[in-house]
Fold these 2 entries.
Entry 1:
Amino acid sequence: MPRLQNSGKFSKMTKILNISQLKKSYDSGSKKITVLEDITFSVEKGMTFSIVGPSGSGKTTLLGLCAGLDKPDSGTVTLCGVDLSSLNEDGRAVLRNRNVGFVFQDFQLLPTLTALENVIVPLELQGVKNANQVGMELLEKVGLANRHHHYPTQLSGGEQQRVAVARAFSNNPALLFADEPTGNLDSATGEKIIELLFQLNKDRGTTLVIVTHDMELAAKTQSILRLKSGKIVSTEAGATV
Amino acid sequence: MTNPTSKRARFLWLLKMARRDGKASGKKLFLFVSSIILGIAAVVSIQSFGVSLKENIGLQSKALMGTDYKIGTNETPRERLLEIVDSLGGAAAREISFPSMVVFPDDKGSRLIQVRGIEKGFPFYGKIETEPQSAAEGYYTENKVLLDATVMLQMQLKPGDSISLGDLKVPIGGALKAIPGSTAFFSAVAPTLVIPYELIEATGLVQFGSRVSYDYYFLADDEMDLVKLRSDLRPVLNNENAFIQTHISGSEQLGRRYDNFGKFLNLVAFIALLLGCVGIASAIHIYIKEKLRSVAILKCLGASKRQTFLIYLIQVAVIGLLAGIAGTIIGLLVQQLFPIFLADLLPVDVQLIISLNVVFNGIVLGLLMSVLFALYPLMSTLYVSPLETLRISETLPQQSKLAGLVVLSLIFAFIFLFSYSLLDSTRYALFFILGLIVTFSVLAGMAQLFMKAVKTFFPAGWGFASRQSLLNLFRPQNQTLILILAIGVGTFLISTLYFTKDVLLAQATLENSSETPNIILLDVQSEQQQAVAATISNNDLKVLENMPIVTMRLHAINDKTVNEMRRDSVLKVDRWILNHEFRVSYRNALTDAETIQQGEWQTQLAEGQPIPISISDNLVRDAGLKVGDDVYFNVQGVIMHTRVSSVRLVDWSRMQMNFMILFPEGVLENAPQFRVITTQTPDETASAKLQQQLVQQFPNITIIDIRQVLTVLEDLLSKITWLINFMAFFSILTGFIVLIGAVKNSKYRRIRESVLLRTLGAKSRQILKITVLEYLYLGALGSLTGILLSLGGSQLIAWLVFDTPFVPSLVPFLILLPGITLLVVLVGLSNSISVIKSPPLEVLRSESR
């Protein structure tokens, strides 16, 4: 399995994600709504971390900022040792491609690509030559090798999410973000997905950041950040390793 | 360490992604691509046929002319001209030609024809085609004539029958189908009769005042430089009121004539193409909206802005290329039809060739136009944020207005360049763009006005289905505007053809008053006028005009003689004036086709003063004359001193005798002259009877029956209209493809809506009614807008350009309007049938797959 060459500093670094005094607001008509205020926390490399809070607490916004999908009004985001504000959009894209994996609530597979093609997109972006082989191995791991040629519309919700998980790990990310990964799944399927995520985290040492409103799921992670109305309410320890 | 991705590998990935994504979307895009295919097919067919025609004219130039070069004159050849002819080794053959009347046997009447008296040997290239073919070889030695095949058919004549030509009665050798130097077009007005040169004198038709042409045909050695010969001889021949034409210059001139018509057709085809491009822009706009999510995902996974933009640009480019190829192939096939339908109008048998230039242009056009018109919607991929993976947005992201302006400028620049290449004129290209902007703006404006009117005066009292169908017209993301444009432009084009034809024909239509002549008698000798007038009276008809014609040539203008003007290299006077034999009349009153523009209409003669003359506005332009100038004319050897006293604006389009120069009465009465007499016959029978009597008594008189001329004109216009209709049809078809595509694109939304209505309890009839009414409004509004715009434009043309009232044809209102509306309704209905028949959830499931 090919492994991305780290710059060296990752292996020494303990904090893979550093958030400092983050603030974000949006315009809503004539009003300005503050979604996040004074958010500061960090995530250790290899740990499992969850962000919880009620609907509208700013969890998804925070996830977007952490992953470099959006820009804060103020504050800093340091991801894999790189201050995201020093990068332009293409720079952030490259950083994500090499270091970050994503699992979304509504799967976000490319509808016009097969399962295998979806899985290997991050590898192809890097120009990896044996992407197909790697992709098949990943699909094997998630139990969908025999469905590699099917399109998302031909797969059930659980199967689509498994393909998404395979894709998320295809580039051997240092950090994986999951936004409500079981939100659109039944509980049995959801549990299997979570199992998969944690297993892969254990096997590869990938840092896992999960956004969820499910406290049971959050309790499985090592650290829980509680948000309410855009502010950190508490940071608590979760499950022990 | 991962190998740095090579440029090639990155590019290959882009191609791969474009293909993968495009596979699933092929059907959606193909429909809109079809609209450019049609436009390109139209352009390629016209361009390709034009190239084939020009090539064939060039290749067959000798056969078209029948000789290498000829020298001709429209007056009795002078001694100097004959010397020139001799110096060239003498003519290989001679021809004398003039219009005249032929009388048919057994009281079958008479007909205006073009007599061609040809010496043996001509044509030296090409051939005279006759039925039977042996007649072409035998007519000369047997002293027979060859008469136009159509006339023979109309008069039920056969070889062996005799006709009377002037004083000569001569048998017909065969039916004349084609001869170098005559085209089917001109033969429709004055059919050709070929007679041995030596028999012309016996007809007695060449008299004083006859309009006779003399041609001398020459064969050239292979080494002879005809271009140089022409440029050397032209000035010499000008002095003798003669001209030289080589087979090269002749074919170039012919090619240019067809060129202009071809340019016009190309413009019509280009409009169809532009309509298709509007469809492309709309389709890509919808297509990209559906791809926003995929773009966001790709960016989330690490693709750059450039990469995601290029994936879809490659798709559009490939589809455009395929459209270009398909359109070009179809165009090359369509051009096969032109020689069949245009046989009567073409001077040569056209062997179609495939021009690589045209093929290349067609393919590039498809590629270029697809990319250009897709560029603006494609650019929205640059602005999509990867954050969209977490949020779903229904609207396209905000784009830079500057980018939009740049793209629009590129589009207009391209349209300008293409129309410039067609029209070869900056001014006309700009007018074309202006015309396009006006047309599209007016159509769009009328659509907006209608929607506003509906909103303002919304019929709240109508039933649910009727109200719902109106509301659908301006639902969010409606396609009302694009559909009205698509239908409107096509309808506009076709209606314009009908209305313009009416305007042109109205120009030529005779006013129905007893004072409007429809028979014109030319070459009436002075001593014949009383007898001619008597014949007319004996038929219970009135002589409306009896105009004297005196021929004269220019001798000098102010203090410069014609010879001095000929030698003047910076002369402002057009050369034709110096060589022309003017046909002048004299009277003391203006006709209703004339108005005084400058000076005063003078009829009083003062002793010792120059004779006051009135000249036409075009002569002022060409001769550089003004009121007060002294003009000297040579009237049959007598020099007359005249002075320009007035300038007349003459309506030359009126079917009556008009004159460039008018003398007052009391000056030319004793000059050698002939007469033009006009009358009006109530119907064709009376006309035929009068013509027969006149021709029998006065065989030298040429009779023009204006009714007949109009019939030929109308027939010609119909043929041309057919071709233009064919090109405009591409627009209509394109409009429909855009319509079908737009309907299909909104299919899912409509189905969801219909399913919801079904769920809430709507009956099939109600859902159908909503759909039918909505498309009825679209179809009716689109086609009516196009027809009204066309009507307005045609009325303006009639007022401002032709100064004539016109009654519009009812065809666009009675056929186009309901026909197009019905088709639009049927297309719209085809979408909704599945909803009516199946349970709601089944429909939703099948549509979401």
Entry 2:
Amino acid sequence: MRTLRVAVLVVVLGVLQVAFFTHARLFGVVPDLGLLLAVAIAYRYGPEAGALTGFASGLFFDFFLETPLALSALSYALTAYAVGLIRAGMLREPRGITPVIGLLAGLAGGFVFAGLGILFGVDALRDTRTFQVIFVSAMYDALLAPAVFWLVNRFTLPERDAPSAYRLRP
Amino acid sequence: MAVHRRASRRRYVLLVLVLTSVTLITLDTRSDDSGPLGVVGRAAHTVVSPVEKAVDSLADPLNDWWQGLTDRGSLKKENERLRRELSELEDERRQAQEALRENEVFEALAGLPIYSDIHRETARVVNRSTGNFEWTITLSKGSESGISPNMAVIGPDGVVGKVLESWTGGSKVRLLIDPDSFVSVRVFGSQVTGLARGRAGSDLLRLELDPGVDVQVGDDVVTSGLENSDFPAGLSVGEVAEVEEQPGIGLLVRVRPWTDFDDLELVQVLDWVPGGPPVVVTTTSMAPAATTTTPTTVAEDDE
């Protein structure tokens, strides 16, 4: 059931990403909703769930991009996995942390995407503008992170079903 | 023990995802769009196309509002505030103006100096670059209208780009300014030809020429139509914006496209195959395309 709900979120956020946010750019840059979703899942349910969600949401997005298929999938999965591991080591959850997670995950995801892209021969990424785009996109992710985390908390299974290490503290 | 097993499983899942991704990336870069991955991609586009069109039809007012918020500063915001205060009558007047403006674009497209025997499919731009590292537009028409990959796309002011992929209900066009884009061009009124390429993060095209050729800032640049070019000869591309001499290498010319890629609303897809007939262009100015001058064929100019 949780898998089905997450799948619905993957599709809904994916469609929003390709149809709506292309019109709502921040300084010409779009956010990474799929990455935010994966990170939110990783934060709530651990690295494994986050990586799987990241792979699915990235792959959905990849079908609409000209970069090699699965490049976003791989970068989202790796970033979400790392966030899940870091989350497991956190003793407490500071207030208002979601924008910070969005920002850091956006930066990490962006650099992983660019690094892998260059490795796989995407010439468009070999430019100084890439840094600027990654930074603005990460800022945009930070703005949207609270909404995506709220969506995940609202539409996935109740708190008691999350692994104990990932339960939100009051 | 259980913790160790869980950690192993995590690493196993990650390894499987990485291997799957690398396999897909390799398959995608080594195959064309006709394979199973291409079919899935087109199916995804077909499913999302109606949503893109619906959002586009609703997006204009939102776009203006958003641009006012992010790009245009306080003046634009003030303009938005005033617009909200306009009466119903004012709305109707604006709609009429919009229709007139659109009509002008249509007239400009219809008046493009191109042989009439080249079939042109007019389409609306419904979406722009999906990702942050590509320069593309999505059109409202696709394979059902005969639009297929590699077809040339033009706008009211000249060349826009090339069709990258098409599906039922839409198609994607790679813009001239995309780093993977290139077009064979000629400096108008001369025999100087070269390959103009897009460049990441720049609105200018990059054109490398042999040393000693006569190119001046302000010269018009048109498509050359050389063998295997995807564009018919004589379509206006832009004007020379900068000429830089590179010692021992040649000239680096930067070309500013005539087309304003941010403002495109309607474009035309040319059903033209490489090696097809030349086009008719004006003898005076290359842009804007709507100027009325006596046409002559580029074929004559070339000879």
